[in-house]
Amino acid sequence: MTSADTSALLTVRNVSMHFGGLKALNDVSFDVIKGEVLSLIGPNGAGKTTMLKIASGAQAPTTGKIAYKGTQIIGLSADRINRLGIGRTFQAAEIFDTMTVRENVMTGAVAREAGSVASSLLYWGRAKQRVEKLRQIADEALDLVGLGDMADLPAQDLPTGQQRLLGFARIFATGAELLLLDEPGGGLNAVEKTRLIETIRRLRDLGRTVILVEHDMSVIAQVSDRIVVLDQGLKISEGTPEKVKSDPKVIEAYLGTSASTVAPKPQKDQPAFRPVEMEVVDLTVTYGQTVAVDNVSLKLRTGEILTILGANGAGKSSLLKAIAGLEKPAGGTIKLRDKHIAGIPPDKIAALGLCLTPEGRALFPSLSVADNLALGRYVSLKRKRGLLGILALRQEDRDEIDAKREEIYQLFPILKERANQKAGTLSGGQGQMLAIGRSLMNDPSILMLDEPSLGLAPQVIDEILHKLEHLREQGLTLILVEQNASAALRIADRGYVFSSGRISMQGPAQDLLEDPSIRDAYLGGDDANTQTLRVNATQ
Amino acid sequence: MTLHDFRYPAAILALIICYFFGDTYFISLLVIIALHSMAAIGLSLLSGYAGQISLGHAAFYGIGAYTSALIALHIGITPWITIPMSAVIAGIVAWAVGPIMFRLKGHHLAMATLAFGIIVHVALVEMRGITGGPNGMGGIPPLSFFGTPLLFDEDIFPLVWGVVIVMILLSENLIRSPHGFTLRAVGAREHVVPTLGSDTNKSKCLVLIISAVFAAIAGAIYGHYIGYLSPGPFSTTFSVKLLVMVAIGGFSRIWGVVLGVIFVTFLSEWLKPFGNVELLFYGALLIFTMIYCPNGLLSQLGVVASNAARNLRQRTPS
Q1: Angle, helix A527-538 to helix A190-205, in steps of 10 degrees
Q2: pLDDT digits (tens, 9 = 90+) for A515-524
Q3: How many domains does chain B have?
Q4: Which residues from A are below 8 Å from B177, CB to CB?
Q5: What is the residue range of B183's domain?
Q6: CA of B189 vs chain A CAs: smallest distance (Å)
Q7: What is the pTM of this model?
Q8: CATH number, domain at B84?
Q9: How many Å lie between the alpha carbon of A209 and the closest alpha carbon of chain B?
């Protein structure tokens, strides 16, 4: 689409958003045509949500312009932008849980039907009429998304899928013409997704324009007129769903770079004969109504790198959190060597030598690199010496921390250079190294890494992956959760592929790497599969 | 809704019964309850419905009391006019400080409101030339009704409860009006409200002004009723006590807040022999309520009672 296209409802021009050194968006331009469903896709950290935030006024870009119907909207307040006609939903449904379903939607229409404060206090004729009008708008919007029957229920009683639809009804009631939907399909089951797709189509039929951010490619494929693909803040592709799906750049963005310098390694010995370090049986993790991990069983063998792959929302992080004790599993068992660990507190699990380096690193930004590392040791120190032992460090403990820290510095020499720098000033890659280093300070026997490559440049990812191989040679067992499948499979011994909370594929890393169907787990399965789901759902 | 409609006549009936059958001590307690209810209802709109904590609400109570008393004393206007004037002044103060305070959120907002309360209290103590400082000021003219001064508890009783009923009515109206939806939305999930086209700061300032006006009217009537003002009753202690009343009443329940005021007032009467230990008791009560009865101590008791009643009904064959 050229910028001369007069039917463009929203024009995004050269938008960049920099957070310190991180370029969340880098010179992105595209148009949204009136009446279309435009999907904004890309791997985790591509800048999709940042784009929505900028377009809805929640954030101002570093540079760039966005015009809605010819009006520049950068710098306007979020409520002004909404009144101009742009409505946004959130990744979580963000319903007002103190209100009924109908009241939630009525709130959406208040901005255009509020009236004076005096009439609100006295509740004379006009205010009554206004509330009646709000109620009408709300009921129409609820019928549109198919929640008409539930208008009087407390909104918090709705399951996740319906809360999302409620969010749609709410922004529909604001009268917005351009709807920005942020991952509406996350955590929904097949039937709910079908309703979601129908609702988005209905919104389009009513003349509303939609920008959809979504990870589920089957949803994207069924509703999108056009797709814009972002990767690490750059627009890498744009066009029809068919065109985008076969674009090699898009495939590379999702599955990782094939030009990686990490060569696949021949397996040194058969991992199948190694002893089982940890066994997970029938594990289920739920968040309220949403099932994140569904009856998953897997084995981890001593001294291997096990990688867990899958698209966003497939349940990978939830699995790690359940193993680390941060989420209480709804069912199933986790056996570490001969000890059952499901449901015991996270610090006890860490004491058994099972450490998680969480997604997003979770460093202490105002502490120095050296102190961040020392903190990794304090947990085990406190167990050994008690609180007093930490407040007044013994010389032997001090030496032990220094010695351990020196090991980490040998592994990641850059951290030694930055030892006295605040962790908040590190680059993404250095931050990731520090996060891994901090976990290693605790002397784990199993290290779990959640998306260590998130937001990092390919060379940095390679460097970190090399270090992980090095750690395996030293006898550490690793679980690596990754979106960057190619890179992860190159260093891993075995892999599991998750989709929708279940294991869809498993096997030696080498086999998975060569299997073309792994792409489907990321870029959506064949359409026949989703078609049958549709039929089932409408019956 | 039927229960809802019953509340007003039932409350008025109960008040009439109290008025004719209560002894002087009881009536004077009910007057204090009415005055505290006015301030607490306003605070419930602000801290309950809109979710904006205030640890300085006594300031507006004090501003109302002192401005009304001073105008009546020095200019000689009837309290019937100075009371609304003081309400307007408190409203203007709220309008001026609101946009500054609501730049802050959460703990920071709590600190700012606390500071505001302390500043006003210190001003009342230190502006000796105007307020009489810690010695206070006396000789405040009472309200009078067709020449009869309303000096006694029995005289002022119908007025203060009349005002409380009107404030409850106005508050309930506000809550179900379009503005009320925005208020409650701000209280539930503030960051969503701008995406629905409403300005959160405007909403918060509006409710701050309304609650300031309510508190100022209460304070002003208090001044003319007691006839003497000193800074003591307008300190942070009173702000905290108001918050305890609102919390016990269940934050966002207008009628519940009045019950909370009644509960705390009677409690503080019983605790009077213990002196300052009563503060300890409020603290403990507040912690207990926040942990075990987030919807209010009294409504939790109501839930327990209605569950018991349902069990009883299920057991008896219908």
Answers
A1: 90
A2: 877 776 666 5
A3: 1
A4: 115, 119-121, 123, 127, 130-131
A5: 3-315
A6: 6
A7: 0.78
A8: 1.10.3470
A9: 17
